[in-house]
Amino acid sequence: MFNIKQLNAIDNILKKNLISSGIDHVIFMDMGGNAIAKLDNGTAKFDSTAFAALAAGNFAAVDAMAKLVGESEFSLLFHKGEKSSIHFNKVNDDMLLISMFNKDISLGLVRLKVAATIKELNEIL
């Protein structure tokens, strides 16, 4: 599906735009829950493979709910916790980008960085 040049470019984009901005963990994955790239700041303490599978199911469920209320899709999901938050964003019809961040980073910054990242990812896909 991806060649080594694309995989290296994806890693570099995620590091440069998201991890270096203070986002704790990033997963770039397909809609089936298969992680293409997983990067973190060294503090991740969870099974990112299981997380990706659950995230795909979550996104699919919300997609079905969108159709029930007459929307073609909800391309962005956000879950806020006491200490951590999760931002899901559709990259294209086949790919999903998940960013996990702590309370020290604003949602606005995350949304801005994710939007720029998605634009760059779509240029290499």
Automatic annotation (TrEMBL):
Residue span, Roadblock/LAMTOR2 domain: 10-101
An annotated Gene Ontology molecular function: guanyl-nucleotide exchange factor activity
Xref: PANTHER family: LATE ENDOSOMAL/LYSOSOMAL MP1 INTERACTING PROTEIN
Biological process, per Gene Ontology: positive regulation of TOR signaling
Highest taxon listed in the record's lineage: Bacteria
SMART domains, alphabetized: Robl_LC7
Matches recorded under InterPro entries: LAMTOR2-like (IPR037587), Roadblock/LAMTOR2_dom (IPR004942)
Coiled coil feature spans: none
Record-given protein name: Predicted regulator of Ras-like GTPase activity, Roadblock/LC7/MglB family
A UniProt-annotated Pfam family: Robl_LC7
Gene3D superfamilies: Dynein light chain 2a, cytoplasmic
